[in-house]
Specification:
Chain lengths: 388, 388
């Protein structure tokens, strides 16, 4: 086990009707906030009315900025930064999924930075105070509700880049599983793939002696798989919605990577995909992850065999653990298919003609991505070919 | 799943040599602290010198209060409160195990309270600010290093009572598994029993639809059992020490009880035992827990069968799940025996003549203890008889 520091202070407020407390919770931090959200869905479901009523009841003034799209764009972030500066706003409430939260974090990071916010996503370190933020989560997927990370897309060149900074963790996050009943099936599935991928990125390591976090990862993956399938049968199953919502948070709150290194190549490759094609991140991951696995599993067959054994209940063929490893990858593909997710470019009707470009952009200004096995341009190209 | 609020802000600083950072970490909070510890062991191992050097190097002044004993006493707490008031101290550093940390929390809770600190352990609510505290952990067991709880014994009547309050969670806790190499075998085993019990108290619930936390509990229990046994063979196995130390924290940081009710009757009954006899808490638990299980398992045979299946890898006898449930309890007893812990009063050479008194004191001023099955005086007496 590596030495590590872990701290995650986000207050998790979980369960039915918890969004009613948003005003009184925010009142502890601010009297004037930016209310940041996507589009019509929170208005259609009535959530917008509940949130704004709670804010008004608590005497919290709010300026609105809507229009966040999946794969959130830096241009809207810049708009949010301008509003916060002009209106003297020191707190942001994100109501939505990972895109809205990540966009809010980018605004929070940019307001007190003199340069352009995109700098912070391309290596410029943060030496200033970020605004505080909170979330009301409507899509369990990205884990951004308690994470320190944010992923933003720059329309100029369609670069999708990540920023991580400790004080970008929300002060509190409100998670009501009932708010996810209205999610379309495809979006539910994409969320399930995303959170499963967050655990797998942490799970696939060459480290040994990481027993507890291995087992915590396996516990979370089994729960995601079981309850994801349950939701395919009944999207209004509160208990399954609650398990998925909680698992999505646990998957990305950094408790599962205490003392271990992760991989993250699949995420990086997927960011090239959804940066260009605007495919949902989860659907990109269900395409990339199995291909990555096929390309790298020989690097550590035992780990893939353990994955098959402990997550998919496969017996390990000790005379030929490779068989178990490959069987595990098949089981993962079967799961994604059962969730009605694409596992190949062609399933998502993506063209094949830009995989060279993606492989190049992936390692732009760096030697490689990935911790389990270093992935360079030529490796990325082979992985993308396996995914066609 | 129940509605819940979860927040645990303690910064965990984990790994080799991490105690060297104690001075610089404390400097973020205070220039003058109470250094609270037990007795000779931290001096003998050289830890005292490392800690005080780090404090001096960072310019942190410290007043010492040593003498904390297992099952920490309220009299020493009162002494600590007097020192903090007299010396104008606003931060406490606990160096030791759960007893030292719990004693520190009691001091932290008592300094700004006008009455006697014992009131806070007998129902008087906290309406004042507690001092901040931090820990350098030397015994993985109680989980007090990130928990909000504290257990103190009142010598006057030998009452052992618990207090829980959110701001009693340490600001940071330093966990270096190497510091546990010198723990005597018996103390290591008692710690293992204590942390396993913390998970079991959370695991034995009548709630259904708590998939994720069930599995996270099982992951933690398996890790504790595997690595506990590893330490019986080689107490200097860093990796096993690290797993046990991390598991002890995870067991009691409240992440395993998100959205579920626990039991805690075994802990309550054990507190009567160790309140009177000064037996190590972990050894008391290895006596009480199997007896409690034998008394209550019929209330929810499936849960005990699942425990046997998922923690001890027993096949479930679907025609007779009671057989699996009973087998699971046997396996737990076998584990405690392999850890060289007592599982009956007679193993610990405890007399039998005060079990009536313990059963009475257990429910003093309350109707019952326990969430899985209500335990009243007559039930406690039967459980204690099963433990003789």
């Amino acid at each position: 086990m590596n030495n590590f520091i872990f701290q995650n202070s986000t207050k998790l407020i979980f369960g039915k009707n918890t969004e009613d407390s948003v005003g009184s919770e925010i009142k502890n931090y601010s009297n004037k906030i930016l209310l940041h959200y996507g589009g019509g869905s929170i208005i259609k479901t009535g959530l917008y009315n509940k949130i704004t009523k709670s804010l008004k009841d608590s005497g919290v003034e709010f300026i609105e900025l809507s229009g966040v799209k999946p794969n959130p764009r830096v241009s809207l972030v810049r708009e949010g930064i301008d509003i916060c500066r002009k209106e003297n706003i020191d707190f942001i409430l994100a109501v939505g999924g990972g895109s809205v939260i990540d966009s809010s974090k980018a605004i929070a990071a940019g307001v007190n930075y003199a340069g352009d916010v995109w700098d912070l996503y391309t290596g410029t370190p943060i030496n200033h105070e970020c605004l505080k933020l909170a979330t009301v989560l409507t899509i369990p997927a990205a884990g951004s509700e308690t994470s320190s990370g944010s992923v933003i897309t720059n329309e100029d060149g369609l670069y999708k880049r990540a920023l991580g900074y400790p004080t970008l963790r929300p002060q509190f996050s409100i998670l009501n599983p009932e708010l996810t009943f209205t999610l379309p099936k495809y979006q539910t599935s994409c969320g399930v793939a995303d959170m499963l991928a967050h655990v797998m990125e942490r799970y696939f390591t060459n480290q040994t002696n990481v027993d507890l976090t291995d087992r915590l990862c396996e516990a979370t993956m089994k729960t995601i798989i079981d309850n994801g399938l349950r939701l395919m049968k009944n999207p209004n199953d509160y208990d399954a919605r609650a398990e998925i919502m909680l698992a999505g948070t646990v998957a990305h709150n950094d408790s599962l990577n205490m003392g271990r290194d992760g991989d993250w190549a699949s995420h990086d490759i997927e960011h090239e995909l959804s940066g260009i094609y605007d495919i949902a991140h989860g659907a990109g991951l269900s395409i990339i992850f199995p291909a990555w696995m096929k390309y790298v599993y020989k690097n550590n067959i035992n780990r893939f065999a353990q994955f098959g054994n402990r997550v998919f209940n496969l017996d390990i063929n000790l005379n030929n653990p490779e068989e178990t490893a490959l069987h595990a990858i098949e089981k993962l593909e079967e799961f994604f298919k059962a969730m009605e997710l694409p596992i190949r470019f062609k399933d998502a009707k993506l063209p094949e003609d830009r995989i060279d470009e993606m492989s190049k952009k992936l390692v732009h200004h760096k030697d490689h991505v990935g911790g389990f096995l270093p992935i360079r341009e030529k490796d990325a190209l082979k992985i993308l070919k396996l995914a066609l």
